[in-house]
Design brief:
With 230 residues, the chain is α+β, with helices and mostly antiparallel strands. The protein has seven helices and ten strands. The strands form five sheets. Strands 1-2 form a two-stranded antiparallel ribbon. It has a two-stranded antiparallel ribbon with strand order 3-8. Strand 5 and strand 6 (93-98) form a beta hairpin. Helix 5 (154-161) packs antiparallel against helix 6.
């Protein structure tokens, strides 16, 4: 997982679609330089590749927030344990929606709030949201895999039904193949690893996440390469 506030070089494009160079900014802004669909995804992929030493990235999947609600409810809601407390400012004072360590069954708008909402008082609010997103995706995948074990058509059906809410270069054939690999135990497992670094507020009070290059390089090697003893 890559924090949205990660500072990296992002390709800039004119209104006509011409690349005008690169500029260091939050990686989340790479999606803004595009059409909100394929070109936005491709620019985001390019930004991630710059961070990851130009390793090939063959697949992307972008999902609108309405699609998240649809998929969430399509598998009967998602059970999660909140990794932190979410408190936001309301007209009548602070409102707490989720508490650290508490279990929740998320449906509809509550699922959206869990993965989308964040506070605004500290530089690490986006990082706290990222932890909730990781907890949510882990639980979603676990429940989805259990349902797929009973019915192999579940992933493809969800993929096809979510098409109006998504943008991807995946196809049903690859989704079906991946689903089979997971449920048959052919070596596919899920593990979240977060890019290491520190977050702070800049002079304009915007959060900036700076990668710890040494720690990240060591992590990169451990994830994508197998050490060979000579």
């Amino acid at each position: 997982s890559v924090p949205r506030d990660t500072m990296t070089d992002v390709a800039l494009y004119s209104a006509g679609g011409t690349c005008t160079g690169t500029q260091e900014m939050q990686i989340c802004l790479s999606y803004a330089y595009g059409d909100g669909k394929e070109t936005s995804c491709e620019n985001t992929v390019a930004s991630v590749k710059r961070l990851f030493y130009n390793i090939p990235i063959n697949t992307y999947y972008a999902l609108d927030i309405d699609g998240l609600i649809y998929l969430n409810d399509a598998i009967g809601g998602v059970d999660v344990v909140s990794p932190n407390t979410l408190t936001t400012e309301g007209s009548g004072g602070d409102v707490t929606f989720f508490e650290e360590g508490q279990s929740y069954h998320l449906e509809g708008q509550q699922a959206e709030r869990f993965v989308r909402a964040r506070g605004h008082r500290a530089a690490d609010e986006s990082m706290k949201r990222l932890e909730r997103q990781k907890a949510y995706v882990t639980s979603f995948l676990k429940q989805g895999i259990e349902q797929t074990k009973r019915d192999l058509s579940v992933p493809v059906n969800l993929f096809n039904a979510s098409a109006p809410y998504s943008c991807t270069n995946l196809n049903p054939a690859k989704v079906s193949y991946l689903a089979k690999e997971v449920v048959t135990g052919s070596g596919m497992t899920f593990e979240f690893v977060s890019v290491p670094g520190t977050v702070s507020l800049n002079e304009e009070e915007y959060a900036e996440f700076r990668i710890d290059e040494k720690a990240f390089f060591e992590m990169f090697l451990s994830v994508y390469y197998e050490k060979i003893e000579r």
